[in-house]
Amino acid sequence: MDAPTLTLLLKGAGVSLALALTSTALATVLGAALTALGFSRFAALRALYRLYVYVVRGTPLLVLALLIFYALPALDLRTGPYVAGVLVLTLYVGALFAEVFRGGVLAIPRPQWESAKSLGLPPAAMLKRVIAPLVVRYTLPPYINVCVMTVKASSVLSIISVWELTLAAREIIERTLAVFTVLGVAAALYFIMCFGLDRLGRRLERRLMARGFAGEPG
Amino acid sequence: MTYLGWVTTYGPTYLDALGWTAVIAVLASVGAIVWGCALLLVRLAGGRWGARAVDAYVQVFRNTPVLLPIYLIYFGFPLVGLPWPAAVCGGLALVLQNGAYVSEILRGSFKAIDRVQFDAAKSIGLSPWSAFRKVVLPQVLVYSIPSLGNQVVLLLKDTSLLSAITVTELTMQAKLLTEQTGAAYEAFAVVAVLYLVLVAGAEALFRAAQRAVRWSR
Q1: What residue of B is the nearest CA neighbor of A191?
Q2: A88, A102 contact by CB (below 8 A)
Q3: Which domains does chain B have, with CATH numbers?
Q4: B→A interface, C-beta within 8 Å
Q5: ipTM confidence score
């Protein structure tokens, strides 16, 4: 493989990582908002949450991607493929994060709620000082799993012509027919990103655990 | 054209595509479970190097997107003299990828089997192969039913990626109809509902399997 091809693939990997990281950041916010919706006082909002999660988890990412790809121009929103790509990943991963966070909230032992309430903490302070730290503590491992999944899922965006690692690889293959080397290098780059992210997450977990922060519920 | 009008006009054209998605998903699921069992056997009986090879295989497939094996087989096999149809290439890629996950699921269930059973199998004179086939495998599969159900649902959704290699399954059909009729919402809403129905069907099937094995015990 010549140097320009390798540079192209490396650039594609950078784009994939940037797409995944931007989307996970936005999806974390969306997921938190959705979780709040899921615990709402109003049955209609809770039903809305369930419907959103059910539909997003029950349909392929590609269907959502194609719908947004075809629908955005129809809505006359002039966005580039990257904005559309980040939007698709955010909407999808947001639902996964919401389920992860929901699990974390449900794992909070009852006495924690009661003592927070009995201390007279206002709701905002209760969320910030009691609930959020506990949820972060409980959900770090599945959260990291979803982050790794996002890097892999970003490859689907290549089908709606977002230029990233998989599309770069496909373009080179169609030009040069060097199928095995190009896909081998692309796979190695994905492996480094995903495996690296996984290891980073485990390290973070261990460090937080050393400070008595992360660990099993209870 | 109203939404209902669109659905009644173009709805029937989805039937072939629905059949393709269902057939590919069912065959690839069976293939992935068989391949996962084979990987488990190699892990258990293949010595230290067998276990290492399976570990490496699982790590590679867990940390790369499924589109890569799909492209590898679809674009690569013709170069080595195997011009298989696109649906077969895509199905094989799904089997290889999901087999890795299945083998991890089965490995988790294997740990739940009481060690005493291996001694019991040996003491009644079962060969290691018979013990695997008649004692280990049935229990491992039964323990794994819920997780295998999840994996099959993921595989079912991943069949949509085969539209990238010209297989006319559901997603491809929606894409074609969108380009023909210009109705993106209608085309993809129908497909989304069909996927939701297929996913619900797969989940119901595995719940029924779970209930069936509970009765037999």
Answers
A1: B63
A2: no
A3: 3-216 (1.10.3720.10)
A4: 59-60, 62-68, 71-72, 75-76, 79, 157-161, 163-164, 171, 174-175, 178, 184-185, 188, 191-192, 195-196, 199-200
A5: 0.90
The domain locations on chain A are 3-210
User: Which CATH number does A3-210 carry?
Assistant: 1.10.3720.10
With helix as H, strand as E and coil as C, how does chain A read?
CCHHHHHHHHHHHHHHHHHHHHHHHHHHHHHHHHHHHHCCCCHHHHHHHHHHHHHHHHCCHHHHHHHHHHHHHHCCCCCCHHHHHHHHHHHHHHHHHHHHHHHHHHCCCHHHHHHHHHCCCCHHHHHHHHHHHHHHHHHHHHHHHHHHHHHHHHHHHHHHCCCCHHHHHHHHHHHHCCHHHHHHHHHHHHHHHHHHHHHHHHHHHHHHHHCCCCCCCC
Q: Which residues of A fall within a CB distance of 8 Å from B104?
A: none
Q: Supply the mean pLDDT for chain A.
A: 90
The tokens describing B71, both together, are: 């492209």
Question: CB contacts < 8 Å between A and B, how many?
Answer: 109
Q: Are B106 and B40 contacting, i.e. CB atoms less than 8 angstroms apart?
A: yes
Range in A90-99, A171-180, B84-93 the model is least confident about: A171-180
**C-alpha count within 13 angstroms, C-beta hemisphere, residue B135:** 19
What would the pLDDT profile of B29-75 be if each residue is shown by its tens digit? 999 999 999 999 999 998 999 999 999 999 999 999 999 999 999 99
Q: Mean per-residue pLDDT for B66-89?
A: 95
